[in-house]
């Protein structure tokens, strides 16, 4: 369907509407040029809420919680699973949230040497990419084992410290988004 995911502040407060300050970073597969559902991760007081935001109605609903804090999430276009990578620890864990039954599944501990993974995205072929916020290194991960299958190194001429995201468009071009 026309859905994707994002990293955002998500509030389950009055009216279940996202706050005006919520920064949405759209990630995942697109069907056509627009989407009507966004998945948001890293919300709430514990930074572990998973929510769904309907862009047609501007409503947000919490549908679950992550196993751990994550600032890098991406929806697999082949399976529809919402993958996320643990934040603030070296060799972070990889997990996914199954949107069909709202359950979490721990995949594995990764061999990513960084604790600053804040970007993730899937290509149409189901290949998972992630990026280190401090070094600018781009990785491809095996979504079954969590292991790095390729380190593309530093992305030249792109300095994107801090938050943000990466995404692939319908033609499989990678886009990098920066936040302050």
Give a quick rundown of the structure.
The protein is mostly beta strands and 180 residues long. The chain has strands spanning 3-7, 25-27, 37-43, 49-54, 59-65, 70-75, 82-86, 93-98, 103-109, 117-122, 128-132, 137-141, 148-154, 164-168, 174-178. 0% of the residues lie in helices and 47% in strands.
Task: Show the helix and strand layout.
Elements lengths: L2 E5 L17 E3 L9 E7 L5 E6 L4 E7 L4 E6 L6 E5 L6 E6 L4 E7 L7 E6 L5 E5 L4 E5 L6 E7 L9 E5 L5 E5 L2
Parallel strand pairs: 1-3
Antiparallel strand pairs: 1-2, 3-4, 4-5, 6-7, 7-8, 8-9, 10-11, 11-12, 12-13, 14-15
Structure overview:
The protein is mostly beta strands and 180 residues long. Helix content is 0%, strand content 47%. The chain contains no helices and 15 strands. The chain has strands spanning 3-7, 25-27, 37-43, 49-54, 59-65, 70-75, 82-86, 93-98, 103-109, 117-122, 128-132, 137-141, 148-154, 164-168, 174-178. Strands 2-1-3-4-5 form a 5-stranded mixed β-sheet, with no helix packed on it. A 4-stranded antiparallel β-sheet has the order 6-7-8-9, with no helix packed on it. β3 (37-43) and β4 (49-54) form a beta hairpin. The radius of gyration is 15 Å and the shape is globular. It starts with a strand and ends with a strand.
